[in-house]
Design goal:
The structure is a homodimer of 199-residue chains.
Chain A: E1 3-5, H1 11-25, E2 33-40, E3 45-52, E4 55-57, E5 60-66, H2 70-77, E6 80-87, E7 92-102, H3 105-113, H4 117-125, E8 131-132, H5 135-148, E9 159-173, E10 181-188, E11 191-197
Parallel strand pairs in A: 1-4
Antiparallel strand pairs in A: 2-3, 2-6, 4-5, 5-9, 6-7, 7-9, 9-10, 10-11
């Protein structure tokens, strides 16, 4: 589930929310799973991975991560990302282009406080995407951290939110004979400009 | 469905095929849907979209597209892509990095011949991703082309296959408490090097 906080009433946001509602009514599994593609300047490489979208707060789309992970480094050196959502239950693909940055520390603190002890123990114990000798070692680190956790355990500096602000939306709806319908909203100085694309 | 032709027997390919089989047995929907992320040099932008993977031919992974589409232009200027697969039925994510180029004209011709008249009419009639005034216009172009199609209609030059060859695989398997298991295979001069990553 995605939590909407004071969501934008601009046209692509209204359209997004109505599709989200439709997907929800159709029991879409993993409705919060989004793929985030980023660019590594250092390696001249595109990389993509799934993350769970937690909030849409006005026009900011927020998920959480380790700030030392490869993706965090990529966001820092190239702040433009591409986000892809596919809801099979309504045969809808949503393509977004956006700029990404860290959320406020306060927002991350509050989200951290609301999570389970297990999730937070993992956030603390894992050096995300670093190599490790065995999965047993991962489990050992996790359970050691979990046992040390108290109600006073605070968010570590190396973990927090990322927020992206879309400047481009494509809503793609599958149709018979692949006559798919593609609506685009692109942000320009004077607001969102709409167009249709060929399938 | 993905068609395997003489597939590579290298370790990550064997692993991929066994996961594919498992997803198939678990009635995975849209098993051939993959997200392909590319980089536009011109715009300094990452872009991603879903395509249907049709073949794995030895170590080449093949899908088809319009050669004048934005993604085709991006592949030409930056031949590295990132490919993402998520099979929810077995809670498995596969992350691939690869180099991409056009397939042979012969391969594209043969694939075109085996497709339905409707699919080929769309390949011919659509200027993929160009703006259009109305969806009615899309349908009109499609049906006009469909009515002109004969058994002699040949593949247009502007439509054909793309083939990507992976040099990096990550197999991510979701696990309790997010102690997800991440296996990596990276191609080096002397073959595939394996490692484990922290969740």
């Amino acid at each position: 589930m995605i939590k909407f906080i004071n969501p934008s009433t601009e046209k692509p946001y209204i359209h997004f929310q109505s599709l989200y509602q439709e997907a929800l009514e159709n029991q879409q599994k993993g409705i919060e799973a989004i793929s985030v593609s980023s660019y590594s300047q250092e390696m001249s490489e595109v990389e993509a991975r799934y993350v769970n979208l937690k909030y849409i707060h006005n026009n900011e789309w927020i998920f959480f991560s380790n700030y030392n992970s490869p993706k965090a480094k990529q966001f820092k050196s190239h702040s433009q990302v591409s986000v892809l959502i596919f809801w099979s239950s309504i045969n809808t693909q949503i393509r977004i282009k956006a700029l990404i940055s860290k959320t406020s520390m306060q927002f991350s603190d509050e989200h951290f406080k609301g999570r389970t002890k297990e999730k937070n123990a993992l956030a603390i114990s894992s050096n995300q995407s670093q190599t490790i000798d065995s999965f047993d070692e991962v489990e050992k680190n996790f359970y050691q951290t979990l046992n040390r956790m108290t109600s006073d355990t605070v968010r570590p500096d190396f973990w927090g939110g990322f927020s992206f602000t879309p400047y481009y939306f494509e809503f793609w709806k599958g149709h018979k004979n692949r006559l798919n319908k593609r609506y685009v909203f692109e942000q320009q100085d004077d607001g969102w400009v709409e167009c249709l694309l060929q399938p």
